[in-house]
Amino acid sequence: MGxxxxxxxxxxxxxxxxxxxxxxxxxxxxxxxxxxNKKELHRHQAYLSKYxxxxxELQALSLDDRKKPxxxxxxxxxxxxxxxEGGNLDNVLDLKIESILDRRLxxxxxxLNLARTPQQARQLISHGHIAVGDRRVTSPSYLxxxxxxxxxxxxQSSRFSQDDSLIRGxxxxGxxxxGxxxxGxxxxGxxxxGxxxxGSENQVSGEA
Length: 208
Prior knowledge:
The protein is mainly alpha-helical. The chain contains 10 helices and 3 strands. The protein folds into 2 domains: about 80 residues, no CATH class; about 70 residues, RNA-binding S4 domain (Structural Genomics Hypothetical 15.5 Kd Protein In mrcA-pckA Intergenic Region, Chain A), CATH 3.10.290.
């Protein structure tokens, strides 16, 4: 059973942890998807490995024995948006780690232009500014389902739901593009530290 104060680890470390190629690929994924550390990546890899293992086990069974569990597995993965409609076990075995990372709420928030960077998307989620439907989600690693993609939005209680310019900055036709910010003392004056550059980050941290 184990010690309840020390929950069992939900991931496995790589078999060859000092492989240069693997270290470089992991570092690239962590930076590209804005993850906090490699533990998050290893958890998603363990999640994917579980489905790979299950698909191989089903392929070893007869058609009659595997029909029901195969349909259950495929319908679950289709609901999560990991395989297309009408997919089969080969589609499950063809899944890559990027398939899982693309379903993270953090990635969806960034690709829906609710945040300017993956790191800012993580901050918005952690501070409670993002909701899926009517439910606020504070876990950046939450895996969005196919039906949830259109429901990802700013939470109703968030200030950004009323004024998203706090995140995206002023519009291109505003004073920042035609005013004195392009010439003169703006490079060292207040406009260089105003809402267009770092103000949105301060707004997010101030909401926590």
